[in-house]
Amino acid sequence: MKKNYNIIRFSKENMxxxxxxxxxxxxxxxxxxxxxLTKEELREIAxxxxxxxxxxxxxxxxxxxxxxxxxxxxxxxYKPTYALAAxxxxxxxxYPEMFNEKEFELISKILNKSIALNxxxxxxxxxxxxxxxxxxFCQGGLKKYLEKPIGGAKKxxxxxxxxxxxxxxxxxxxxxxxxKYNINKFKVVDATNMLIEIISxxxxxxxxxxxxxxxxxxxxxxxxxxxxxYAGEGILKNYGCYDLGTYPAVVEEAGKSTVGEIxxxxxxxxxxxxxxxxDGTLYTCKEVKIEVEEGEIDCYAYVYNSGITGGKVxxxxxxxxxxxxxKYVWYACYGSNLNDARFKCYIAGGEFNGKKYKGxxxxxxxxxxxxxxxxxxxxxxxxxxxxxNKGVAFYDKNxxxxxxxxxxxxxxxxxxxxxxxxxxxxxxxxxxxxxxVAEDGLKIKTFTNKSRLKSNxxxxxxxxxxxxxxxxxxxxxxxxxxxxxxxxxxxx
Length: 492
Hints:
Layout: H1 15-31, H2 39-52, H3 70-94, H4 101-114, H5 126-139, H6 142-147, H7 154-174, E1 180-182, E2 188-190, H8 192-202, E3 207-211, E4 229-243, E5 248-265, H9 267-276, E6 283-292, E7 295-304, E8 311-312, H10 320-324, E9 328-333, H11 340-348, E10 350-352, E11 355-357, E12 369-375, E13 377-384, E14 390-396, E15 402-411, H12 412-422, E16 431-437, E17 443-448, H13 460-473, H14 478-490
Parallel strand pairs: 3-7, 9-17
Antiparallel strand pairs: 1-2, 3-5, 4-5, 4-6, 4-8, 6-7, 9-15, 10-11, 12-15, 13-14, 16-17
């Protein structure tokens, strides 16, 4: 096993062998096989690595050639660097005492070097390769590392934090409809499962469960899965589903099928689910085969222990409350509505900043709220009479960076009413944007202008108002928020 992670130098005449070894090294790191090694074995690999790393820039090359084109460097420099950087992250997470100060400096150089190409491959498979490269780093324990990172690897740390936010944004937007990438000029592959694998590994959600009742998205107990990763729908064959009133049950029944959802959960969440399902008294946890589009996968499912008295469920079960209740959405705001007192005026009516608001037809306040970060750029534009004729917040969904948003759970009708009060004309917030689907199955929606408007800096009062909401209500650090707003203004 150890030899699969040692650096071997190849001559330019042995490129085929070098490419084979690079592929082997990378695939081993993709699977995280180094997790089976002892501390002593990891130390031996680190010694070999430190002897062969380029101290100037932290690169790890199988072939040393200053004239090598970028395409060659992907295989002979960057992929080995990704693989061994992930191994070092794992070693650091578990045995930080193993390294001295000079070695930490080398590790920092290696990590910073690894993002020189932004983890993109060269050519048609650039985006698909990006996912594979992120998978390698997540296998190393990226989440744990970023909680207590190495200070000298700041470029790497900042890049990875933003990369995870972007990947979670892609996940929200594509998990229900799929995502496809080119791997060469002629072939396109479905990358949805890889994306789900990356997010689940990052969150340490290594247990796959199949749920078919109150734990599903939009149902009353889905909150238990708030840190889990939704992986789509599947079918449990040879099990029938029965409606017991407030919850369903499945029992073995030849020729019958049950439709449900697949989730990746961590150990803590699995324990909560086990307790919710009765700790074995009402349901028994069994390993079952779930049919998905690509074939069959193994999952845990909770099978009913008692006799069945309910009616047969045809299709996917849903509670009576879910069937009859008004439709809800998560309204995502990024400007002055980050302040809940301000947003309350849009819902219930009232006066704010010298202007009266009629509120929504339904003046019931939001059911829940939370904060998220989504890909895209905050910027300021137009002239608002409410804010001294200076710019107000808009969202550029195609912009670089992230935007901090507050989500309010309101009805579809309330969302339309808020949109009308904000101004849904072409010169203001004329475009409704669906940012994705939340883990409870509800759409995340916002609005902005249909095109990128000419920027106009905000009034100091408006800026301070947003900063205060982000710090006092969102829990963000004031220095972080000042930098965030400055970047939005510099986007002018």
